[in-house]
Amino acid sequence: MADITNIQESEYDAILRQAVAVIDRTRTMIATTICSAIGSAHWEIGKLLHDRKLESKHGSGVVNRLSYDLKHRYPQMGVSPRNLWDMKKFYERFCDSEPKLRQVVAVLPWGHTLTLMRKFGDDDKAILYYAQEIISKGWNRELLSSAITLKMHLKKNETLDNNFEQILPSTQAMFANEVFKSSYNLGFLGVKDTILETELETRLVEKVKHFLLELGKGFTYLGNQYVLEYNGKRSKVDMLFFHRGLHCLVAIDLKIGEFRPEYAGKMNYYLSLLDRLERREDENRSIGIILCAEKDRVEVELALEDMGKPIGVADYQLIVPQEELKKVVADEMEAFGKELPLRTETKKE
Predict the structure, then answer these.
(1) Which residues of the chain form CATH 3.40.1350.10?
(2) How far apart are alpha carbons 188 and 7 in whole angstroms?
(3) pLDDT digits (tens, 9 = 90+) for 49-95
(4) Cα distance between residue 289 and residue 281, in whole Å
(5) Which pLDDT score is estimated for 158?
(6) Which range among 12-16, 153-157, 195-199, 231-235 has the greatest average pLDDT?
(7) Which PANTHER family does the record match to this protein (predicted)?
(8) What local confidence, expressed as pLDDT, does residue 2 receive?
(9) How far apart are CA 235 and CA 272, in angstroms?
(10) Which of 339, 330, 333, 321 has its CA nearest to residue 190?
(11) Distant-in-sequence contacts of 94-101, Cβ < 8 A, 24+ apart
(12) CA-CA distances (angstroms) from residue 4 to 1, 14, 21?
């Protein structure tokens, strides 16, 4: 075995981080398997109660006794009378649903399933959306409740408010609409409350790789507070990127509050400077994205109506998909072998 002194500290750190990533992925797989097994038990017990035609008025005595006997045999299992009735409701709610929906709710934690049943009743589309988000992002019930409050299932198909089609060539406009989103999930920043724009920018810069992943493939980060000097004056772009597919510079302006029409004029000015000072002859026109906490679509449309530069306005959601963050960090550690901060704090449900 090689002497530990023959291994560089950075090499050992890379080995350790990759090992941690493997273990975390395995634990996630185990947790999913356990949830699936528990979900199967809840389904079968619910079916049993349904088939026996037990109702709360006439079957309460049977269910109470069943709960007592099951608790005696399985003291660690949640088999209270209320839980048993919920299992029956669970079976009856999804027994006739599409296979895709049944499969996804089968692997959810029980508390998440109950929350979705109570919040959305017969709305299969909403339940499917949140169930898929829970699985992909590892939301606990608090994060699920936050997402429901924000009505994220109604926002997922919104297009970015922009003037791309009026300003850009049709092919580039179509591609730009595919690249940029109407809403960005900045949960990896660990922010829940309103913060100063400078702090938001600092956190974005610190985790710029995560932000690039949120934006999508093809982005190259050029810098923050990017200085543009012209006519004896200095202007600063909050964040500047280059997109390989669009073959253009992308300026991002961060705002902690709601969208204001004057933001569009400021971005229009930045884009003029970028096209004059930074854009190369073989590159397309620069695009600007105003990222704010809230936006009114009518107000955005009016503000962009006569703008001569391609500008989009998006809002951001401050939800914390912690398990997704862990996966992103693990993947980056494997890919780059560089030290990245990994949030270790977890919230108890």
Answers:
(1) 161-318
(2) 32
(3) 888 888 876 778 888 888 888 888 888 787 888 888 998 999 999 99
(4) 22
(5) 55
(6) 231-235
(7) BLR8175 PROTEIN, UNCHARACTERIZED PROTEIN YHCG-RELATED
(8) 46
(9) 12
(10) 321
(11) 95/47, 95/50, 97/124, 98/124, 100/128, 101/127, 101/128, 101/131
(12) 9, 14, 21
Q: Among residues 326, 318, 324, 321, which one has the least CA distance to residue 343?
A: 326
Distances (CA, A) of 348 to 24, 114, 141, 207: 17, 18, 9, 25
Which of 92-101, 150-159, 175-184, 236-245 is predicted with the least confidence, judged by mean pLDDT?
150-159
Structure-token pair, residue 340: 């990245």
Paired tokens of 305? 């109506």
Give the residue carrying structure tokens 């050029």: 222
Alpha helices in 52-150 (DSSP H): 60-73, 81-94, 99-105, 110-120, 124-137, 141-149
Task: Find where tokens 């003037």 sit.
Answer: 163
State how beta strands 248-254 and 233-243 pair: antiparallel
Instruction: Mention every residue, 6+ apart, whose C-beta is less than 8 A from residue 34.
Output: none
DSSP 187-224: GGG---S---HHHHHHHHHHTHHHHHHHH-TTEEEEEE
- Between strands 161-162 and 219-230, the pairing is unpaired
Closest CA to 219 of 234, 233, 204: 204
Place of tokens 């990245």: 340
* Portion of the chain with pLDDT greater than 70, in percent: 67
Q: Report the first-to-last Cα separation within the chain, whole angstroms.
A: 44
Give 252's strand partners. 239, 289
Q: Evaluate whether the domain defined by 161-318 bears CATH number 3.40.1350.10.
A: yes
Mean pLDDT of all residues in 266-290: 92
Alpha carbon 133 to chain centroid, angstroms: 8
Contact 304, 311 (CB under 8 A): yes
